[in-house]
């Protein structure tokens, strides 16, 4: 439903405080964009927000994000209420981290994207799912899945990564076959390129 001018002002003031990384005029622009996206969305949320399809289309057109698994996970990190609807608060606060978050905020965000089942760890299986699309060329005599499994092993064994083409510092420090947030954080602080080790989930500089 349309808000009164006073209601919009109060919303913008509140979001400017909670989103931290945007000034008031930027928040106003994001709220206006939100209203445009809601108008494009289905009516099932009664004007309260927009759905997964509109969200994915927006991230694809604005940031060139195309990976289906990543886009679904990014949607889940924005949709904190887990109701399938992105509200204006989730929209602005989510973009604050996506576009201007601190390293700490981005580490938590990326880890949440890669933790497909939300159990607090990135398991071998989750790495496999995230990296499956990264191996574009396979040896003729090798199954594609075998190549991904080999890459996951390299990640866990602190070997050179063909995914990033840099020495891989991401290590399973407690040797349990999965990465905790502490493992991930330690590796990223040593080498910031590892922030998106399992797939691009942040906009590039452009």
From TrEMBL:
The gene is Efcab1. GO terms for molecular function: calcium ion binding. Keywords: Calcium, Metal-binding, Repeat. Residues 66-101, 102-137 form the EF-hand domain. InterPro entries: EF-hand-dom_pair (IPR011992), EF_Hand_1_Ca_BS (IPR018247), EF_hand_dom (IPR002048), Recoverin (IPR028846). It comes from Sylvia borin (Garden warbler). This is EFCB1 protein.
